[in-house]
Amino acid sequence: MRGFHLWEESRMAKEKVPNIADPVAVARTAYDAYVRKDRSTIERVIAADFRFTSPLDNAIDRQTYFARCWPNSEWIKGFDFINLVRDGERVFVTYDGHDAKGNTFRNTELITVRDGQIVDVEVYFGWPIPHKATPGRFLPENASQVVWTPVAKTGMLIRKSPEEVFAAFINPDITTRFWFTRSSGPLETGKPVRWEWEMYDGSTQVTPKTIEPHRRIVIEWDRYSGPTTVEWKFALLQNAGTFVSVTESGFTGTGEELLNYVTASTQGFTWVLAGLKGFLEHGVQLNFVADRFPKGPTEPYPDE
Predict the structure, then answer these.
(1) Integer Cα distance of 95 and 170 in angstroms
(2) Least C-beta-crowded within 10 Å: which of 121, 169, 177, 200?
(3) What CA–CA distances, in Å, run from 29 to 45, 238, 278?
(4) Which residues pair with 23 in a beta bridge?
(5) Other Cβ atoms within 10 Å of 85 Cβ, number
(6) Has domain 17-129 been given CATH number 3.20.20.70?
(7) In this predicted structure, what is the pLDDT of residue 16?
(8) What is the DSSP-derived secondary structure letter of residue 61?
(9) Residue 39: its pLDDT value, please?
(10) Rounded-to-integer distance, Cα 176 and Cα 194, Å
């Protein structure tokens, strides 16, 4: 029986990680567990006396780490390693991480491995990829130190088919009835167009990135602080119509600027969808976009 117990202890030790002699292999196992959503593997890799430190966490323990950090595995899609360097029992890691929304970010981590398990991790937040500052330039000193770019999102049920609702954003003859007033052409993948709001003497360059008929539209356009990405999704709801969601991402600026940008975008697209609903469902032009700023965008609240 003693021989059996020795064999069992040896087997369990080997199950901790693929190669307990190599801290780099242990680190890779942990990252891979996040990508594969493999809780059992990450449980074996993280030591009982584990500690985790980041700009947001001060030496939190194993239980707190799993409660706070493991849910991130739901949106993590992969890691591209820039550096994986061993120094004794420590591993210095720099990676580009990819999330479910297509965003990329760069972090550096210092991982300490002992007896085949991770006992300590220090995370140093980096920056989004591509960098928010123009090459050779820098962001203001009071720029918000956010890890994820704020996103504006809104949506509405339109009681028409996905084909009709999708066409309303592709065909400027329809879109000009509820949003902008002039377009240089319909939306076609890779073909830039210009949209104009003549009542505000404003315009923007629009580049369609993805067009999936009756399902999805993605564009890049010029906005408050530079180019941002807008995505429309069209979901058929049986016996109801089409639910349209609009998401805008890629804003840059200080914390206060980002808050203002996201607020304005969410509000603006809500009015656009309300105007779309009025036109497609009832055949009326409600002029929400024009009437939102009766004295122009520079004086959004003339009653103040």
Answers:
(1) 38
(2) 200
(3) 8, 44, 54
(4) none
(5) 10
(6) no
(7) 44
(8) E
(9) 95
(10) 13
Residue 252: Cβ within 10 Å count = 22
CA distance 79 to 233: 27
Encoded amino acid at 133, one letter: A
Given a contact cutoff of 8 angstroms between Cβ atoms, the answer to whether 179 and 279 are in contact is no
pLDDT given for residue 56 in this prediction? 83
Question: What would the two tokens of residue 81 be?
Answer: 């390693």
Residues in the chain: 304
The single-letter DSSP state of residue 160 is S
| Bridge partner list, 155 | 245
Which H helix or E strand runs over 257? Answer: helix 255-282
Could you name the CATH architecture of 152-292? 2-Layer Sandwich (3.30)
What are the residue boundaries of the structural domains of the chain, listed by start?
17-129, 152-292
> Nearest CA to 19 among 110, 78, 91?
91
Break the chain down into helix, strand, coil percent, rounded to 5: 30, 40, 30
DSSP secondary structure letter of residue 71: G
Extract the tokens encoding 215.
């399902």
Q: 117-169 pLDDT, tens per residue?
A: 999 999 998 888 887 777 777 766 655 444 455 889 999 999 999 999 999 99
